[in-house]
């Protein structure tokens, strides 16, 4: 997630029971290597890391999802060859450039690239995320913020792991029921915030932010403040320089003032 602020990170999510997975990963690796460090590839077996399948709302394997400044960008589901993958990655780089992500890890392949080591508390948070322990990751990020309140990466990381922790226990049935409640009960705080979490994780950022802004505009008192605080956390998840966040900030100002 932190590296995605420098270069787009592409996740190839696969499973051993999927016959298309191996071919897709081979094609993805060859294409990404050809970009000489402008993209990074990460692969994960969703049976071994089910929290990633939950976080990325995976419906089919194999699936390719990019992460740009901490924000998931769906690429494709199912098998894909190099001719199909390359135009998608070219477009991803255009979107990255428009959002100020123009870094490169050099001429080596992603496997050879060695990013600068993380600060100790950030590394502790990263290790906890890999272990699926989002609570421990949140503790590490909070400690980092106590030491350096202006640490923007720790602030964004904390918002991200708190989002993942909220989504982790949800089953497919829970998700469906939550979306139904969100549609039926527009002034139910928990339902609206829950659906906003799902939408951010699924890449429907504008829908998520507009949902919370609309709730704030219709409600007052403690619930309004709770929704406002959550909206600011979602801004950190998406990235405060993202144009969708800027637009949502304007909407928030209108409903508050």
In short:
The protein has 257 residues and is an alpha+beta fold. It has 2 domains: 96 residues, Glutaredoxin, CATH 3.40.30; 137 residues, no CATH class. A 4-stranded mixed sheet has the order 2-1-3-4.
What characteristic shape results from the CA principal axes?
Answer: globular
Query: How many strands in all?
Result: 4
Can you count the helices?
11
Number of domains: 2
Work out the strand percent: 5-15%
Largest sheet: 4 strands, mixed
How much helix, percentage-wise, in residues? Answer: 55-70%
| Class of secondary structure makeup | alpha+beta
Low-confidence stretches: 107-113
From the alpha carbons, calculate the radius of gyration and give it in angstroms.
Answer: 19 Å
Q: Could you give the order of strands across the largest sheet?
A: 2-1-3-4
- Straight-line distance between termini: 34 Å
The H/E string reads EHEHEEHHHHHHHHH
Q: What is the average of the pLDDT values?
A: 88
């Amino acid at each position: 997630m932190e590296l995605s602020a420098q270069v787009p990170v592409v996740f190839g999510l696969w499973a051993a029971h999927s016959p298309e997975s191996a071919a897709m990963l081979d094609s993805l690796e060859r294409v990404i290597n050809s970009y000489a460090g402008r993209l990074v590839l990460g692969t994960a077996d969703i049976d071994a890391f089910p929290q990633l399948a939950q976080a990325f709302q995976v419906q089919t394997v194999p699936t390719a999802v990019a992460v740009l400044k901490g924000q998931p960008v769906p690429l494709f589901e199912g098998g894909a060859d190099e001719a199909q993958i390359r135009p998608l990655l070219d477009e991803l780089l255009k979107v990255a450039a428009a959002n100020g992500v123009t870094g490169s890890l050099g001429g080596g392949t992603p496997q050879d690239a060695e990013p600068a080591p993380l600060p100790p508390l950030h590394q502790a948070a990263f290790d906890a995320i890999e272990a699926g322990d989002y609570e421990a990751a949140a503790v590490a990020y909070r400690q980092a913020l106590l030491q350096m309140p202006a640490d923007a990466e720790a602030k964004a990381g904390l918002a991200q792991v708190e989002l993942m922790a909220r989504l982790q226990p949800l089953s497919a049935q829970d998700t469906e029921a939550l979306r139904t409640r969100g549609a039926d009960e527009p002034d139910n705080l928990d339902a609206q915030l829950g659906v906003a979490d799902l939408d951010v994780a699924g890449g429907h950022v504008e829908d998520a932010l507009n949902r919370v802004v609309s709730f704030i505009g219709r409600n007052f008192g403690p619930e309004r403040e709770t929704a406002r605080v959550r909206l600011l956390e979602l801004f950190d998840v998406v990235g405060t320089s993202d144009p969708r966040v800027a637009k949502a900030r304007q909407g928030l100002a209108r409903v508050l003032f």
